[in-house]
Amino acid sequence: MNVYDAIYGRRDVRHFRPDPVPDDVLVRLLRAAHHAGSVGYMQPWNFLIIRSHGVRGQIHEVFARENRRAGEMFDGERATLYRSLKLQGILDAPLNLAVTCDRERKGPAVLGRHSVRDTDLYSTCCAVQNFWLAARAEGVGVGWVSILDIDEVKTILGIPPAVLLVAYLCVGYPQEFRDRPMLEEVGWESRTPLRDVVFEDAWNSRSSLFPSAAEEKSP
Ligand SMILES: Cc1cc2nc3c(=O)[nH]c(=O)nc-3n(C[C@H](O)[C@H](O)[C@H](O)COP(=O)(O)O)c2cc1C
Residue 176: CB partners within 8 Å, gap ≥ 6? Predict the structure, then answer.
């Protein structure tokens, strides 16, 4: 699969088949993540593989509580639609993966991190994206779960206070890779036209790349 196929075919997956991900496949995905760019070559990440049903059960409880609270942000039809959405596969996927960022790795002076301290977090997100795309190329699904009380999850997993939990991922073979994002399919959200997010020379100044609002070709 070429990189564009992986990019356009990547989906956030919430419906998994129970079959395990073979170790050699998982190692390839982790290696792809570990080859992400990072500020000052800091490599601030760790990857915590969670297979235990007991541990995942505890994390699912945290999700269920947070999800009830999150649902209260919406009213009427949107609240009903929200409650109908499956927004995680914590127990269905054969494994979960916590991706962390050690903000103190390599000491206080990291090349390139002096001005923007959060570049360690950005680096960790690059690792997550590498993992996600490599997984797509392997036919493995990944779902990012952010509806969590991060401190509670850190306590469950024994993650030290100075280490940030950046991503909690569900990983396994998907029931399907949808053609479009689920949130688009159900009418929750749609893709913003590219021309609306590309500026040129100054903020809010439309780029000459997109002179008209002609229908964008889907990839
Ligand atoms: C940082 C981040 C957090 C996300 N958290 C959740 C989540 O808690 N639950 C969920 O169902 N999807 C979550 N998603 C997936 C997004 O909803 C999804 O990426 C978006 O709807 C576009 O769909 P696609 O990834 O299939 O293209 C998250 C994605 C990102 C990048």
Answer: 15
pLDDT, tens digit, 9 for 90 and up, residues 15-47: 999 999 999 999 999 999 999 999 999 999 999
Residue with tokens 């950046």: 166
Measured in Å, residue 149 CA sits from the centre of ligand 1 at 16
In this structure, the number of other CB atoms found within 10 A of the CB of residue 125 comes to: 15
Can you tell me which residue has the tokens 């050690």?
A: 102
Q: What pTM did the predictor assign? A: 0.96
Tell me how far apart the 2 most distant CA atoms of the chain are, in Å.
Answer: 55
The ranges of the chain with pLDDT < 70 are: 215-218
Helices of type H across the chain: 3-9, 23-34, 53-71, 76-84, 119-137, 150-157, 182-185, 194-197
CA distances from 114 to 42, 105, 121 (A): 13, 14, 14
- Residues in contact with ligand 1 (CB, 6 Å cut-off): 11-12, 14, 87-88, 144-147, 181, 183
- Cβ-contact 128, 166 below 8 angstroms: yes
Closest atom of ligand 1 to 189 CA is: 21
Q: Report the Cα–Cα distance between both ends of the chain, in Å, rounded.
A: 15
CA 153-156-50 angle, to 5 degrees, is 85
